[in-house]
Amino acid sequence: MTICRKKNVVILGSTGSIGLQTLDVIEKHTGMFNLLGIAAKDEVAVLAEQIQRYHPAVAAVGDTSSYQELCSRTGKDCTVLSGLDGLCELAAWPEADIVVIAVSGAIGIKPTLAAIQSGKRVALANKETLVAAGDIVMQEARDNNVAILPVDSEHSAVFQCLQGENKHLKKIWLTASGGPFKDLDRIQLDSVTVEMALKHPNWIMGPKITIDSATLMNKGLEVIEAHHLFGINYDKIDVVVQKESIIHSMVELVDGSFLAHLGSHDMRIPIQYALTYPERVVSSAPELDPKLLGALHFESADMEKFPALNLAYRAGRIGGTMPAVLNAANEIAVNRFLTREIAFTSIPWLAEQVMELHEPVNQPDLDSILQADKWARSICRKL
Ligand code: MG
Prior knowledge:
The strands form 2 sheets. A 7-stranded parallel β-sheet has the order 4-3-2-1-5-6-7, sandwiched between helices. A 4-stranded mixed β-sheet has the order 9-8-10-11, covered by helices on one side. Helix 5 (109-117) packs parallel to helix 6 (127-143), helix 13 runs antiparallel to helix 14 (322-338) and helix 13 packs parallel to helix 15. It has helices at residues 17-28, 44-54, 67-72, 83-91, 109-117, 127-143, 153-161, 186-190, 194-197, 207-215, 217-230, 268-276, 307-318, 322-338, 346-357, 366-382, and strands spanning 7-12, 33-40, 58-61, 79-82, 98-101, 121-124, 148-150, 169-176, 237-241, 247-253, 258-262. The chain is built from 16 helices and 11 strands. By secondary structure, it is an alpha/beta fold. It has a domain at 7-150: NAD(P)-binding Rossmann-like Domain (Rossmann fold), CATH 3.40.50.720. The structure holds magnesium ion (MG). Magnesium ion (MG) is lined by residues 152-154, 222.
């Protein structure tokens, strides 16, 4: 009889929305998973509480100046690391089986590569990593024979629909909720406040992705993410607004069949699937009763009102360092909106200006990508 040992899980970004929900999934399935390590950017108090509660063997804090504070709040049985090097060391920790990348932004690139290069299964919730460095990350995954399991709900949906159907794929249909401002006109969009933008109609998420959902940049980044994850060109990736967020995405097959993934909008379902794949286990997400759904609605995304989606298609098709530049500019623009420096509609405008100033490098190595990322951030701060 074979006894399956528990899988050791590392979570980078354990204090964020996906991180907390991953902890919940692990807590509900302690027979399957052991929490080996956690990491956060600078939320030392929450990280210290998580260490007390879950007793991971290793913890890391991204901000090096928080290292001493975390050490002073942590017992001797937990190894403490810090900085980007610390995150990479944790991602490559010898006992780790699965690394959940749930940090926000392109900061996830190096830890993701570290996990892949040491042969870990990667549960990827950080789309910015694939947007900025998708070619390199996917190549490393192939070279190291490592599985990258998407946590993003749309990509998890596509991944599930494609089980056994990969060679029949004709087109990917990513669904979008349309965000909270789907029905506003352009003048109303100009006066959107931070508070309004942080209220997503269907999903509970961190601030960066919630703003990205409101501008539709999130969907744009997901188009680029899908291109890399499923090795499909941009003409075969389309977006449809499904405002109830019940259909999490669809695939169209060569014979005209559509397969769709439906479920309640609870991120614990895709998180759990990335951890248990190819198995499925009971989830604590709320049950979905189709009888109560009434209708599901479909419509086109308004690319004129929400230029970010088109911008992402453009960056993706240009390729090279352009998607990294779009992503970096968007990260800074979102921050500037959150600190009330710029208007909501200036987010895609700024990203576009930075893209126009960029001379893309073709087939860039990691250094060129990181350089382009840095350049885009500094230009976007100045504009
Ligand atoms: Mg998504």
